[in-house]
Amino acid sequence: MGGVELGPLAQRRLVGVGALLALLATVVGATAGGRGDASGMVAARASSTASSVEFAHLTDLGAADALTKSHLTTRGFASVEASPVSSYCAEAVAAWHGAGDYRAPTGFLTTHSPHDQNRCNGVPVAITFAMPAQDVTISFWGAALPYQLTAFDAQNNVIATAEACGRPYDYDDTFTISVHATGPQIARVVFGREKALTMIRSVTFVASPLGHAGV
User: Fold this and answer.
1) 139 near 175, Cβ under 8 Å?
2) For residue 10, what pLDDT is reported?
3) Are 42 and 192 contacting, i.e. CB atoms less than 8 angstroms apart?
């Protein structure tokens, strides 16, 4: 049987249908490969998790200097240390103090001398995260002076800073300070002001287990 000869209009229609099928095949292939897959985007966002460490609720800490490695790693911290900026209280360590100290209604993270917990309570605190963070917020009490929060990446470069003041012995109010990075870059933060009382109520951070500091 001889072939059927198509007119110009029918030929144009077949070309149009072929182009449409090719386009659909490209879209389906891209989706199967993960490009443009909405569920993949949701999964990526879900991989970033927000954590909040409330120092008021650390009931397993029975002593002022009971910040052990196990207390930290289970809460998303690699380390919590005093970070002296000068020779003032160079021996200070990070510590948890319970309710009643400085008339505080709950426990809080601070610093003190290894020899006297009533000394060296005004030294900045350095917090290193187990996973890099994108956002960090610290809730605190403190003096009517500018406290600074500085964020560092894994190479110890400063990537964000912020300042906020407290109000002495005002335990009815909440004072917060935050830093933000464009991605999971924050490996460590330092909060405080030398010779101003350090009283950290909580640390809230958004970390991504898929990222790594310095990216």
Assistant:
1) yes
2) 43
3) no
Number of domains the chain is built from: 2
Same domain, yes or no, for 101 and 72?
Answer: yes
**Domain span at residue 13?**
8-44
Q: Are residues 36 and 54 in the same domain?
A: no
pLDDT of the residue at 210? 54
Q: Long-range contacts: 154-158, Cβ < 8 Å, 24+?
A: 154/187, 154/212, 154/213, 154/214, 155/214, 156/188
| Spans of the chain below 50 pLDDT | 1-6, 8-46, 60-66, 211-215
What pLDDT shows up at residue 55? 85
Q: How many CB atoms lie within 10 A of CB 57?
A: 12
Residue 158 sits in a domain whose CATH number is 2.60.120
Q: Are residues 20 and 82 in the same domain?
A: no
The radius of gyration computed from the CA coordinates of the chain, to the nearest angstrom, equals 27
b/e string for 87-106 if b means 16 or more Cβ within 10 A? eebeebbbbbbbeebeebeb
147-179 tens-digit pLDDT: 999 999 999 999 999 999 999 999 999 899 999
